[in-house]
Give the backbone structure.
Amino acid sequence: MYADLKFPPVQLPPEADAMRARVRHFIADELAANRFTPTSDSWCAADPSFSRRCGEAGFIAMTWPKQYGGHERTAFERYVVVEELLAAGAPVAAHWIADRQSGPQILRNGSQRARDTILPGIAAGRTFFAIGMSEPDVGSDLAAVRTRATKVEGGWNVNGRKVWSSGAHLAQYMIALVRTSGSHEDRHKGLTQLIVDLKSPGVAVRPIENLSGAKDFNETVFDDCFVPDDMILGGEGRGWEMVTAELAFERSGPERFMSTMPLFLAALDGMPRTPTAAQEVGRAAAHLTALRAMSMSVAGSLQRGEAPNTEASLVKDVGAVFEQTLPDTIRRCRPTEPYAGEAGSYEAQLAHAVYHAPSFSLRGGTREILRGIIARGLGLR
Ligand SMILES: Cc1cc2nc3c(=O)[nH]c(=O)nc-3n(C[C@H](O)[C@H](O)[C@H](O)COP(=O)(O)OP(=O)(O)OC[C@H]3O[C@@H](n4cnc5c(N)ncnc54)[C@H](O)[C@@H]3O)c2cc1C
């Protein structure tokens, strides 16, 4: 018997419309003041000063308690803010990971000191996080991590190496998945998540250049780095359980199908009125609408405390195919040479999207891994 996929339809509440108007106003002001140039994949484009302004405007930590600097809004108000920022191609990367997953993880599983000292800074758009899951030879097979934390008085001594840590060069902290007991053959047992202060002695962050020459992700090396006991998340040995829960948040948001949305919007302006263009643009718009409905449905499930892991993987996989093929689709309809020349132009948007598209089906879990999860969820393996 195959398991059911659950995508209950979601109707945005009226307060989400009011929030959409607010964030559009904010974006219009930013653009009028020339504070950013729209770009595709803007959740990988960091501008700490833009993040601070988002914090001041109340667009970070939107669903968190006021006690920690949050705004006690609904997940759907947060959803519309996120989709508007992505559609505008705004440089949200600096605060993205902290707002989407590190902060919520600390809220649920952090010590009181971690909550008190870290969360208000995230909400203000001043404290940034990196994710330390992947290691050399450990990406898809996350349970095989080798970075090790050994118990010492008052905390843990961390040694090892993480790779592809997006934004670690700007972040004050990393949540690192490490082994605290057993060996890498023990798989899911003995893994723990630690909040590592990246300014601590024994931490080195080195840039890794991507295909376009940008330095967005890093290698992070721990050489006898001390982490206090109260910077463990959720208790020793609960790392795997927490990582699995976190991935549903990481995989289902609008960033998983809207990376090339600014290109789509830029292309529409000068789109020729040909039958091919009408057909391709119509099909892309239909895909986008279906993906948005699926993603909002997962947001609703997460808000209810459910664990829609299969559905989140489906959004990520179908979304990656959509946003990865969009540059080619657009280019067939409105032929041009990708050219990084004039920032914000259609040609530059296209060049940026072409360079970044290969990563869409790698980051956050590769296509093959996601399809394996979906197959398991459907009872096929
Ligand atoms: C832009 C970008 C940003 C990233 N940011 C971060 C970050 O902030 N933090 C972080 O921790 N990581 C980050 N990553 C790493 C990302 O999560 C890994 O690249 C990804 O999980 C794949 O791991 P890998 O690179 O080791 O490839 P591998 O696991 O070696 O996979 C190589 C190929 O083999 C396939 N494969 C592997 N295992 C199987 C299997 N069992 N069955 C079928 N096929 C399989 C994969 O699908 C893939 O095609 C980022 C990656 C990118 C591209």
In short: The pocket of flavin-adenine dinucleotide is lined by residues 130-134, 139-140, 164-166, 217, 359, 362-363, 365-366, 368-369 (CB under 6 Å). The mean pLDDT is 94.
